[in-house]
């Protein structure tokens, strides 16, 4: 019973108390530089010191781990485009999957073209999977040294080639006919 009136009294004192602050109310904006002025000061100083704009690909020697990192990002984007674009396309088009599967099969597309298209679908999946496994190994705290990083890069490339070849060479059975 004592708590409720005490809490009410405390709340009223806090809410009804005049707004007194120990911090000065003077604005410091007049003494600070704007972002534009700060940027101009930065670039003027860099021009006077003849500093380059920023490190670029020409500054660094292109190496395997750099290529794998770039390719990992590109394959993630390609997978996202494929995995969202294909279902949206199939939903928007009339007919069902078996209709389009049979239409493609009836086109008599030459085998090299079919294998090339299968490669374009299998490579991003295989590469991103292998790079993801490497990241799992890194999450375990293994493989951070320069030698281990390069060895892991070559393992990713070998695994990607093997998995892509396996996926490309797998024969698919046509979907079962509906009765």
Automatic annotation (TrEMBL):
Q: By its UniProt entry, which CDD domains does this protein fall under? A: SQR_TypeC_SdhC
Q: Where in the cell is it found?
A: Membrane
Query: Which topology term describes how it sits in the membrane?
Result: Multi-pass membrane protein
| UniProt GO cellular component terms | membrane; mitochondrion
Q: Which residues cross the membrane?
A: 113-133, 153-170
Source domain of life is Eukaryota
Q: Does the keyword Transmembrane helix apply?
A: yes
| Primary location | membrane
State a single Gene Ontology molecular function.
metal ion binding
Pfam families recorded: Sdh_cyt
From the Swiss-Prot or TrEMBL record, give the protein name: Uncharacterized protein
Which species is the source of this protein?
A: Elysia chlorotica
């Amino acid at each position: 019973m004592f708590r409720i009136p005490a809490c009410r009294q405390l709340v009223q004192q806090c809410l009804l108390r005049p707004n007194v602050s120990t911090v000065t109310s003077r604005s410091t904006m007049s003494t600070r530089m704007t972002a534009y002025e700060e940027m101009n000061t930065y670039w003027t100083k860099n021009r006077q010191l003849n500093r380059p704009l920023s490190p670029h690909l020409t500054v660094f020697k292109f190496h395997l781990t750099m290529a794998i990192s770039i390719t990992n990002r590109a394959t993630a984007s390609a997978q996202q485009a494929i995995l969202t674009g294909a279902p949206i396309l199939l939903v928007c088009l009339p007919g069902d999957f078996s209709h389009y599967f049979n239409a493609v099969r009836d086109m008599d597309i030459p085998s090299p073209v079919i294998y090339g298209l299968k490669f374009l679908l299998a490579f991003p999946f295989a590469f991103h999977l292998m790079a993801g496994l490497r990241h799992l190994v890194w999450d375990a705290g293994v493989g951070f040294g320069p030698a281990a990083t390069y060895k892991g890069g070559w393992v990713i490339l070998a695994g990607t080639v093997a998995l892509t070849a396996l996926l490309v060479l797998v024969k698919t059975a046509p979907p079962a006919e509906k009765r």
